[in-house]
Design a protein that fits this description.
Structural class: mainly alpha
Shape: elongated
Strand content: under 5%
Radius of gyration: 18 Å
Order of helices and strands: HHHHHHHH
Number of helices: 8
């Protein structure tokens, strides 16, 4: 049995293709990423020490942003309650859709959604966070450079 490495990205290959980038830009412009974005700086602040370790205490904004993104790839989230709520919303949409076509086994629909869609959903969420970090790069760097409160 293969054990999970402790200091590797949970999603190492998160290249964003052209279509995904278009979707992310549209989500950003329409405000779909706003709820997620509101949690970014708090996450950066709470994880400052670990992010700075990844940046090897570099002070360049670019290296700090890269370190924040790397930390997100390792962690996989910035706000778990929001992720859970969003996944429940997606599952409920699937339950509604399946009900419209006569499938009313809610438990089976939930389990099927989880098996089929949860890994893809998580990868997309990480890509959304990476995009948000890019959009708010100057704020992320400033947060990491901000002196710690005593």
């Amino acid at each position: 049995m293969r054990t999970m490495p402790t200091h590797k990205d949970i999603e190492p290959d998160l290249d964003i293709n052209e279509n995904e980038l278009k979707t992310l830009v549209e989500e950003w412009k329409t405000g779909k990423l706003k709820n997620l974005s509101t949690h970014l700086l708090g996450f950066v602040d709470r994880n400052r020490v670990e992010i700075l370790k990844l940046a090897r205490n570099a002070k360049s904004p670019e290296k700090l942003v890269v370190a924040a993104q790397k930390f997100v790839r390792r962690r996989g989230y910035i706000h778990l309650p929001l992720d859970m709520a969003d996944q429940i919303h997606e599952i409920n949409n699937e339950i509604w859709y399946r009900g419209e076509i006569g499938d009313f086994d809610r438990q089976k629909i939930k389990e099927t959604w989880t098996v089929r869609h949860a890994p893809t959903w998580r990868r997309w969420r990480i890509k959304q966070i990476m995009f948000i970090i890019d959009q708010r790069a100057s704020e992320v760097a400033a947060e990491l450079l901000r002196p710690q409160a005593g």
